[in-house]
């Protein structure tokens, strides 16, 4: 059993599912599971962390943590870890987790395993599995030496447990001294899309260059609406201006691991596969039966997406209506 600290992530007053996955994994393995909740006006979220298995919640309320900032998070997280000496520290491999965790590791003088897709708790130790070479191979990582073992975990890789509302946690309010910060986030201006982010959605419908225009993606949006999905894109589609960069899946875009990934007119270049090959079920629609995407697909449709996607949407609508 280890003392495991999980840095909770939240946005717009809601905790992220990826945080529940980490708490669920740590607590299912019989660890002493702690969550760290940072922000301003966030204390009300502590109970929900308990429902997923956190036995202790450390709440750090500070106006300097109202919006995520690298500097403030690094300072606050480092301070709480130094004060509690956990054996294992986990955060989600999201843009936020990827940003502050390496800095925290450097401040503590310990190693960090990033983008893990499997965790194995062994006593007070942690072994992890993570993809390398753009997902072509996996490595097992063992931590050596002393000090906490730090890891970031790919969202959707572990699966979240069911909430148990009867569970409670010991909640502790913690004060941290942020000191004088060099930068301050004044405002967060949201993008126009109301869709879930590709990294968080459990279904992603992605399109490639073959969609031909930004308008072409409307067809994918309609399919995504039926499935409650996010819309992703290949780099070729993004470079052509059909979609914003935030939607790009792949080596130089976002890494996704949804339950279902539908690739429409995407060739399956290695750099695209790097961002989606750990999806649980992959469906590919492509006119070219030799397209590399079919090598990773669980289900393949050889056909013209302009005919297949609308037909798929209509069939899925019927299934939903019944
Ligand atoms: C350093 C580097 C980083 C990169 N990072 C990324 C990244 O993060 N993400 C990424 O995606 N790419 C990335 N790339 C680019 C990558 O190599 C490919 O060029 C890109 O993924 C191709 O996009 P695509 O599949 O949309 O286009 P194409 O390669 O042009 O493929 C289009 C596919 O659509 C099919 N098709 C055409 N018409 C239809 C139709 N009507 N119906 C059905 N199928 C049809 C074709 O058969 C073809 O397979 C990177 C490249 C480099 C060098």
Q: Pairing-aware structural class of the strands and helices?
A: alpha/beta
The residue ranges in which pLDDT falls below 50 over 5 or more consecutive positions are none
**Overall pLDDT, averaged?**
95
The small molecules bound here are: flavin-adenine dinucleotide
Please report the total strand number as a whole number.
17
What share of the residues does DSSP label as strand, in percent? 25-35%
Main β-sheet: number of strands, strand sense, barrel status? 7 strands, parallel
Order of strands across the widest beta sheet?
7-11-6-1-4-5-12
Question: Portion of residues in helices?
Answer: 25-40%
Count of individual helical segments:
9
Q: What is the architecture of the largest domain at the second tier of CATH? A: 3-Layer(aba) Sandwich
From the 3D structure, determine the CATH topology of the largest domain: Rossmann fold
Number of domains: 2
How do the helices and strands follow one another from N- to C-terminus? EEEHEHEHEHEEEEEEEHEHEHEHEH
CATH classification class of the largest domain:
Alpha Beta
Distance between the termini: 47 Å
CATH superfamily of the largest domain: HUPs
